[in-house]
Amino acid sequence: MLILQPALRPQRRRKKKIGLAIAGGGPIGGMYELGALRALDEAIEGLDFTRLDVYVGVSSGSFLAAALAAGLGTAEICRIFITDDAAPIRFRPETFLRPAFFEFASRAREIPGTLLGWLMDRLSKPWETDWSELLGRFGALIPTGIFDNRAVEEFLREAFEGLGRSNDFRKLDRRLYIVAVDLDTGETVRFGDEQHQHIPISRAVQASAALPGLYPPVEIEGRYYVDGALRRTLHASVAMDDGCDLVLGLNPLVPFDQGLAARTGKRANRSLVDGGLPTVLSQTFRTMLKSRMQVGLDKYQKEYPASDLVLFEPSGDDAEMFFTNVFSYESRQHLTEHAYRATRADLLARRRELAPILARAGLKLRGDVLADTSRTLISGLDSKRPRRTSVTARLRHTLDDLDVALSTRR
After folding, report:
1. What is the pTM of this model?
2. In a 3-state reduction of DSSP, which class is residue 99?
């Protein structure tokens, strides 16, 4: 589904600033966003996702925002995460699902002292039982995350260094913001701003993607950070605060409309309650995110009247996005292809409304690309890639930058 929010008072200036805001949504959400990005990359003339002015990433969306800002194109990212054809980088899903043994051991060390303290209290007050105090005391022994997110940081650091990119916010020639939440204050933190530019990009992504319960909070300089989506869904305002005239947004999680799906023949007419607790929780979580998204959209047009916003997200009857296991890496190619096709269909259906918004930023749709029904995400990738090492990757990246610099001077 495509949501268009045109600027009320567009700025008249020669060089328009373009920003990209990518929300979270777990592994499956990231795959959906990757498919949508690839479709946009092919279908919009003048759009180079490695040369935008501002990037904003939240949770799983921070992976993509950081990769694009570092100069990795959508095709290259697809080869890393979808086709496993991006030497010297090899994506292994199991590395993101390693049990957090260090966290388990850390909590286990506290068991004897906690148990001894509780027994001493019982001996001194044998007839008093405070269940809330009991839960609070032993609740502190529960690990804060199931999986070890240190692998997230290691993978990104090796990817940036192995492909000749930078892991330093300060060395990028464009603005990148990775959004996380300070656990002890509940405040939003923008890694990449002046106060947090010295933090490695890979470390910032690790913090932004630390979904409570699944991954432990990430300690950075004595502060603990968790998933950036806890405060807001998209954080498109970060790009607008930076003066972007056009912001492209991606949000992979929307509530499922069972009635609409039944009318369009995509799902049997039955209640989501039949899916049990996981389905109910998924729908609840998505509804909350969508509600916050809508509040943000209403504010954007009032507070940023000079900015155009183009938001892509699944339709309400998209059963594939809703019922696919959110942590299933096996479905990544199927979901990415699905998002690719859905985004192309949205662009084709809304091309007349979208054209003037894109034109203000010097962009236009490629009608021939959208009309090619035989095109797929995989077919758009080169099947054979030259063998690459970290040295050749750095050389290729340097030559790309030189080519852009020369083109700008001309």
Report:
1. 0.87
2. strand
